[in-house]
Amino acid sequence: MTYIPCLMVMVKSNLLKHTAYKLMFYLGLFDMSSIFANSMASGIYSLNGDVACNGITFKYFLGCLGMYSWIIQSTSVIYLALTRLFELCEWRFFRSLFEKHRLYFWLLAAQVYGFIWLFYDRAALFTSLGYAWYFDPYYRIEEMNFIDRTQFKDVYFVIHNFVVGGLLPLIYFALSIVLWLKARHGGAKTSRLQYLITFQSFVISLTVMVGSMIYAYINLVEVAETFGLVASAAWLINSGCPSILYLTINQTIRQGVLQLLKCSKVESEKCSHSSKVNVAVTPPNAVQQSNMQNKLS
C-alpha cells in the first residue's frame, strides 16, 4: 500500500520530467502487480501447505502474472541502470536514446518482450514443499520420481536471469568508475539529485540482481527449503523495497506523501464534523410538525 501514494506524488510533482523517475514509475506498476503472487498468494499457499496441483488453474494464472511482471521489472531495471551510466558519462548520443518520446519505444519493447514470455513460455507454480515458485509441478514429490524432470527445466528463464544478474553489476561497476574519475579529476560536479537518483537505482537494481540469481539457481537444481524461502524473500523485497526507499531517502516523495495523508485526514474530519452538525440540527419540517401537534393539543 505504500507504493500507491509514492506513485501519486511522482505524478503530481515534477519528478516525472526526469527519465529515471519515469522508469521508476513504470517499474512501480509492475512491482505492485507482482506482489499478488510473491506476497499474498505465496503466504496463503504456505499456510495451507499447498502443492502445485492444488487449485492449479488459478495458480497458473498467478504464475503467468508473476512471470510477466518479473520479465518487465528486470528489463526495466537494466534500462534504469543504463540511463544512469549514459547520463553521468555525458554521452549525448546514448543518453538521447532514452530521452523524451524515445523512452516510450523502449517501454513498448519491454511490453512486447513480456508478452512473448507470457504467451510462449510456461508459468511457475507455487509449492509449499519448496516455499517458492517452480516450473516443475512435481517438485520434491517423491511419488512422482519416475517422471523425467528435465522436461520442466526452463532454460530460457535461467538464461534471462543470469544475463540480468550479470549485466547489472557490470553496469554499476562502470558507473562507480565514472563517479570516481569525476571526483578525482575535478570535472563537472555531480548534483545531489543525480547522486540521489543513482543511489535509488543502485538499491533497486541490487534487489533485482539478487532475486534473479537465486531464482535461476533454485529452478536449475533441487535445493533445500531454506533457499526457496530466501528466493521468495528476495522477490518480495525486490517488489516492496522501492517504496520504502522512496519514503526514507527521497525528501520530495516523503513530503508529498505526508501532504496527501494530511489532506485525506482533513477531508475525513470535515465529513465527520458535517455529519455531526446534520444530526444535531433539527430539520425545519420536524419543528413545524411539533408546533402543529402542540396547537392541536
From TrEMBL:
Protein name stated in the entry: G-protein coupled receptors family 1 profile domain-containing protein
Origin species: Steinernema carpocapsae
Transmembrane segments: 20-40, 60-82, 103-120, 155-181, 193-218, 230-249
Keyword annotations: Membrane, Transmembrane, Transmembrane helix
InterPro entries listed in its UniProt record: 7TM_GPCR_serpentine_rcpt_Srt (IPR019425)
Pfam family, one: 7TM_GPCR_Srt
